[in-house]
Write a structure and sequence with these properties.
CATH architecture of the largest domain: Alpha-Beta Complex
CATH class of the largest domain: Alpha Beta
Number of helices: 11
Strand content: 5-15%
Length: about 350
């Protein structure tokens, strides 16, 4: 099969909108076959490429290996989407880097809440746009698509076909292997690992990568972004090397060992005792993470309640400012104003009368 365009790397760089535009221009008014095997990348670039496919018209996307995130957005612009029977397809909600840690006073927290609220609203809008695109492609209700995105759903070719994300399942050379390097790249892109049967010791690897994913997900995403800013020939190598170091450093810290001896092929051997210790450490760390998450959720809930109280008070102040003042009436004595000396005299006479009455009793 001859492919006119290869989308087999990070979308944004080196797979840019300019690259796709140039290739489409060389095949104007001709059918174009696009090879897609990518873990995703920049949403804006994916939306641009999608529109280029729509405008070109006769575009067929052929999906192989792991197709995830932004890669699933651009293929919706193709006239036909064909997926290898061993490939995997994944959709999820979009995300963006947020850096809000540090010592904060009440004003800083309020500003951070406002900033995060704005970021959430922006992401909600992007998710709505992407979900609408998926819904248009599949014919499924937007609410169902939104649930799938929230669940970070991996699908087989048959599942993707049944949902309507693709148009045809085609033959594939072999099933994709979820190697350590590929797992590191998936985590670096901020994606959950798919379930693939037949792996050697899958439960242990899943536990390790799941811990690393939750503990270092945002850091890994930044590492990947930095690596992808280098030249094309070094981008994948740099990402893999950094992620390998990150994984090994994490495991060494959990086991309280300085380092592991690596074989020439880069593999690392662990003893059964180390594996058991690692499982115990992961379980303990999972408990700590769960407790911290509860604290974060409680703090967020308190912040939400405080913000609601602030909003309510601000609304009351606004209403009071806008309301008319109460009318007042002047009070006048029919006989004219009473002099203060007269008041004193009247009080004295009343006291004297009381004293006389008390004497009689």
């Amino acid at each position: 099969m001859k492919y006119h365009i290869l989308i087999n790397d990070y979308i944004g760089w080196p797979i840019s909108a300019d690259y796709v535009s140039r290739e489409l221009a060389t095949h104007k008014d001709q059918p174009v076959d696009v090879y897609v095997s990518s873990l995703g990348g920049d949403v804006n670039t994916a939306l641009q490429i999608r529109q280029m496919f729509v405008e070109h018209g006769n575009v067929t996307c052929h999906l192989h290996g792991f197709v995830a995130s932004a890669a699933t957005i651009l293929i919706t612009g193709a006239k036909t989407v064909r997926m290898g029977k061993f490939a995997l397809y994944m959709i999820h909600k979009c995300s963006s880097w947020q850096d809000q840690w540090g010592q904060m006073n009440a004003d800083d927290i309020a500003a951070a809440i406002m900033k995060l609220t704005t970021a959430k609203q922006m992401l909600d809008q992007v998710d709505h746009v992407i979900g609408s695109i998926y819904a248009q492609k599949t014919g499924k209700p937007l609410s169902e698509i939104a649930d799938m995105m929230k669940a970070e759903t991996w699908m087989t070719a048959e599942e993707a076909l049944s949902y309507g994300f693709i148009d045809e399942v085609i033959e594939d050379d072999e099933a994709p292997a979820l190697t350590a390097d590929l797992s590191a790249r998936i985590v670096a892109c901020g994606l959950p690992l798919p379930e693939i049967t037949g792996e050697e010791n899958p439960s242990m690897w899943t536990r390790i990568t799941d811990f690393i994913e939750r503990s270092f997900r945002q850091h890994a995403e930044r590492v990947a972004a930095e690596a992808l800013s280098h030249e094309e020939n070094h981008s994948t190598l740099n990402t893999n090397n950094k992620m390998k170091k990150l994984v090994l450093a994490t495991i060494c810290a959990l086991l309280s060992v300085k380092d592991f001896e690596q074989a020439e092929d880069g593999t690392v051997n662990m003893t059964e005792e180390q594996l058991r210790l690692l499982e115990n450490q992961l379980a303990a760390q999972n408990t700590v993470l769960a407790d911290k998450q509860k604290e974060i959720d409680a703090a967020a809930e308190n912040a939400k309640k405080l913000q609601e109280q602030i909003d309510a008070l601000q609304e009351q102040v606004k209403n009071l400012k806008d309301a008319d003042g109460d009318d007042t009436d002047d009070v006048h004595d029919d006989e004219g104003p009473v002099d203060s000396d007269d008041d004193f005299a009247a009080a004295s006479e009343a006291q004297a009368s009381f004293n006389r009455l008390a004497g009689l009793i």
